[in-house]
Amino acid sequence: MILTDSHAHLSLVVERFGRDILASLLIDYAQAWESAMRLGHPLPLILEPGVDPDDLAARVGFLDRGSGLPPFMRLAAGIWPSAANLASPETSLSALEEAMAEAARRGIHIAAIGEGGLDYHHMEGEAEVQARLFEGQIAFASDLGLPMIVHSRDAAADTLAILARTRGSSPIILHCFGYGPAEARAFLDLDCWISFAGNISYKGSDTLREACALVPADRLLLETDSPYMNPAPRRGKGATPLDIERTYALTADLRGVSLLELADTISVNAHMLFG
User: Fold this and answer.
1) pLDDT of residue 142 exceeding 90
2) Into how many domains does the chain fold?
3) How far apart are CA 165 and CA 29, in angstroms?
């Protein structure tokens, strides 16, 4: 099945697998979109996030085949907390703002800000510097009225504190959620959406599955985080959005719903958030 993927790095899929794989993937989604339109079924989306302030033009180049972006594609623009991006948060934020202004001049729609946030696993910059870059993107999202896609790894408490203090009115999406049920409840108390990836299927992910089971349907998203997080039994292999059906199947079982019902739920949520 061709299903909504709320977070897939297609430019990295190209780096991993080549342009032919991307071309085939886009054809599959285009055909699924047309079929869903004809039959009145849930329309599948792919959200392609940003990680560097200057990566937007290159990502558009991968996806625009001369007639604009495919109708199932949504783009985000954001800044992951890498050492280079953290060297000067203010410079990175200014570069992102200019890239988005250029996209607007070209008629390219940006559906969300992100991914940006805190990563205390790789820890490529001090927590205070990561917070400055993160808070700047939250402010940007709020000013533009766009959703904010949040990366949070080994940083739940600080992520919650920053969101509680600065989030404004923008929808907040915790992508590739990696915490347990207590943290899920805390983020839900802040009206966040929570997106689960293929790691929900891994052997040691019991608390992650508990978290997924408690998220209300109208706050749930699913993703591949392609080319990462391939669901079992292909853990460790490169992933594309075509691998997401196994994540849907497991999540449907966890939540006691049919695969088609879950597909409808995720599609509705993604369209509501990303247009």
Assistant:
1) yes
2) 1
3) 39
- CA atoms of 101 and 110, how far apart (whole Å): 10
Report residue 213 CA to chain centroid gap: 20
Q: 178 — phi, psi (to 5°)?
A: -130, 20
Instruction: Tell me the residue type at 55.
Output: D
The alpha carbon of residue 106 and the mean position of all alpha carbons in its chain are separated, in whole angstroms, by 23
What tens digit of pLDDT does each residue of 6-23 get?
999 999 999 999 999 999
Write out the two tokens for 263. 């597909």
What is the pLDDT, as a whole number, of residue 42? 87
Asked whether residue 1 is domain-assigned, the answer is no
The CATH number assigned to the domain holding 269 equals 3.20.20.140
Domain limits for position 160: 10-274
* Amino acid sitting at position 208: L
195 and 184 Cβ atoms separated by less than 8 Å: no
Does residue 4 lie within any of the structural domains? no
Instruction: State yes or no: cis peptide before 171, omega within 30 of 0.
Output: no
The verdict on residue 5 lying in a domain is: no
In a domain, residue 2? The reply is no
More confident residue, 225 or 61: 225
| φ and ψ of 83, to 5 deg | -60, -45
pLDDT in tens, 153-211: 999 999 999 999 997 889 999 999 999 999 999 999 999 999 999 999 999 999 999 99
